[in-house]
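USER: Please consider what follows.
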Amino acid sequence: MRITNKMMTNNVLHNINNNKNLLSTLENQYSTGKKIQKPSDDPIIAVRALKLRTNLSEITQYVEKNIPDALSWMDTTESSLDVVNDILRQMNTYCNQGANDPLTAEDRASIVENLEQLKQHVYQEGNSNYAGRYVFSGYKTDTPLVFNEPTDEYTYTMTEPLCGEDVTAEFKIVNNVDINAFDKENPDAFDKTMPNQIQIYRMRLGYGNLESGATIEYTDGSTDAEGYLVKTALPITAEKTLTDPDAYQPGDDEVHFIRETGELIFGKNVYEKIRKSEHIDVTYSKKEFQTNDLRPEHYFNCTRTSEDGTEVITYEKQNLNYNIDEPFGVTEGQPIQYEVNFNQKLTINTEGNAAFTHDIGRAIDDIINAVSDVQETEEKMAEVDKMLEDTNLTPEQRKALEGIKEQLTSEFTLRTDIMQAAFAGGLSDTVDMQDKVNVAMSDLGGRYNRLLLTQSRLGDQQVDFEDLLSNNEDVDLVDTIIKYTSAETIYNSSLSAASKLVQSSLLDFL
């Protein structure tokens, strides 16, 4: 085969170009640190890189965004529950003191003031928020758990689910002494009936200062064809006010509704009828709400109607079509879930009804009212003592006033007993709410620990995927430098050889 000069030149140029391409490839690897610059360089590396980058991107999203956000939300929740638990411990101490120790008027005033402030603080914690979202409000993260200010713009008609165990036996005083009825001109006309206690059967609703028109339905265990418990209407005999002398004395077959205090008072026969009922639904309306009152939509099925009636919003919170196999008060939860791992979601929120109840506020109200009653009796006793200091009293007047003082002494003793019972009730309610808060904290702590474990595992996976991605994409810099130096030497050598070859001219062949 005859080798021509042109063939030799073409081969030289081809080899130089190959050496230059190799040098260019190594130079790109050296400068970028990556094995390939485009998918066609190595499709296998390119496909594997896409998969690894996708997985690493998801893990990074979980580790650096989702999980820290979830942990911050749960930290806020835990902090609030810790504060509530501490407040309840203080409340418990005050209630224990009131239930067991003899208290002066100053002691009672101090305890009541502290309890009122602590009650307000408990409910203020219900409005804790994270990044502008209320953490205890379920899906309604833009709606606070409690009212931030007094409002009467809307009327809420709500159904509160209760049971026979919520009807408690209480004591009330009848024949209270009214010293305003004492007439100096006719002292013997004053009612000499001694105050005495009566037992009542009371159901305390979630709110006081209610509107008229409450209704009651209860179940007695009978079911319909579909297995749902049959509800029976329980008529309210009369709506009473606290000024009515028989407000707490219904007939055996009667039910009294006291709107100011939000109480249902049952006669003896009615109590026997409902005391074992597992479901008692009380529907009532309320318009005027005070600061730190719990918002009904977070607790009950209710309808909110604007003052002019143009806006009507219905909130469904619970399933009140009770199936015989369903536990009482089945709550349709509103879990806020974060995706914290591949196909793994975690509930980060704790709903307000799992930690904040109406009972503690109502119990403090009972204590305040009982203390106020004792204070009222003390003031009446002081007024009678002042009247007895009058040296111009006739023997009949003095005798009548001494009788009134004896009545007031009896009333003071009875009201003191009721006050201590109210403190004991507050003691029980604070313990119950502490248990509820502790359960909520325990549940939150369990989810928090799971999240920390997930974060730790994903952190390890993130490092592993970064190593895999680096091994797949990144070049060995030392090896690349050696190859680049070698390719550069080869390229320069090819140029040198070519320069010697192309030095030959036509004269060299003549």
User: Anything to note?
Assistant: The first helix runs from residue 5 to 32. The chain has a mean pLDDT of 87.
